[in-house]
Sequence to fold (507 residues):
Amino acid sequence: MLYIKCPYCGLRAQKEFSYGGDATVKRPNINEEVSSEDWDNFVYMRKSPRGKHIELWQHIAGCRQWIKVQRDTATHEIFQTAKVTEEIR
Amino acid sequence: MQKYSVFSLIKNAFSNHQNWEVAWKDPTPKSEYDVVIIGGGGHGLATAYYLAKEHNIRNVAIIEKGWIGGGNVGRNTTIIRSNFMYDANARFNEFGMDLWRNLSQELNFNVMFSPRGIINLAHSDAQMNAYARRGNSMRLNGIDAKLLDRDEVKKLIPMADFSDEVRFPIFGGLMQPSAGTARHDAVAWGYARQADDMGVDIIQHCEVNGFDVVNGKIKGIRTSRGDIKAKKVGLCVAGSTNILAEKLNMTLPIETHVLQACVSEPVKPLLDGVVTFGAGHFYISQSDKGEMVMGGDLDGYNSYAQRGNLPTIQHVLTGGLALFPFLSRLKMLRTWGGIMDMSMDGSPIIDKTHIEGLYLNCGWCYGGFKSTPVSGWTFAHTIAQDQVHELNSELRLNRFSTGHLLDEKGLGTKTWIG
Fold:
């Protein structure tokens, strides 16, 4: 079981959360011309690194907020969590 | 090469089985090969075998970080099927079924292919309609499909819960009678033995650290056992695809996730074929040893750990108990996890890349094992001819940008949406 520290609620079990994927993927700006390559990168292409990974989780059975989690994809160790508006360094 | 038969078995019994030939050699890497296959799993070994057999390319090396057959080919639930609706997937996998049917004879190695059928359970009229449609599509592609009503399912799996209290009552199911299981290790070993016999070098405990790419053309690879020149390089590394892609500065429509499976203690024969309970995120079969072999969903987050977490196993078995209450009496023998190269539309990629001489075989998601022979066959063709075969002509890398997705079940990495 992973234990994730929600920035709003504190340490909670993984079962309360839903995974949202890579948090570093940026959506192309709205109301601007988007090349199909940029759109492709946004929708489909993922680095999926082995090691530190910044990702989105939603505290679906709690405060329902989206949060950022920095986690090791090889060991599952969680280093840091933050509100989705905050940066993880 | 020594032929395996009942006579060789009897003959070797007299010497206490001490004098069997080694099944494959342990060569030192040469400095140059015509083709280097990275990844000594089922797909890599099959690719090397078909390169030698179908295309007479024998100056081939398989480079494996661990030991052959130590990855997903030894960690799956051994299911073989071709019950796909889309033409591209159906034709591809039905060609594979034909290879499976003759594989033990072809490899002179008993892979124990056992076509006992697969049943996908349906729990509503809408799902029955969808299965009727899928079954019809399968039959148009020459694949056997049978729509079962509730009573027919009950005859086949009487131990399932057919009471009125269940959350997902069984309305019927779609069956592919020719689907089945095989002994996964034997598949890897059989391909390895034959490939080795035709001159393929199987190089184990050799990690790929980098690639030599000059002017957009592959020249060789850098490994923990020295540099190896190669005219062509094929990637068959499943869950390590993203790691090697990063070394090539490629980004792929692949996420790596962990998928768990488990087996119970062995019991007497009670389940003939494979049963999938999609609504409960659960599937099950019984091995020849009598163990109940079970699996279900991904753990649901990016992972390179070959182990998962307990909540997913609990979730999967909760579904299992809803379908087969008798499972509550069984002890769990073991659970394990493998890392899956999850493509974004749920279908594989077998293609050339923008680097000349570099070929890609990945994106197998939940179902790489069943496609082992046809994946090797088509990948060998793609490498040897430098062009995709008709069978993998839609399993292209660029289908994501052109919009020609093969979203068979509307599943990709985000199973929680499906």
Q: What stands out?
A: The interface with chain B takes residues 1-2, 13-15, 18-19, 21-22, 36-37, 40-41, 43-50, 53, 55, 71, 73-76 of chain A (CB under 8 Å). The mean pLDDT of chain A is 95.
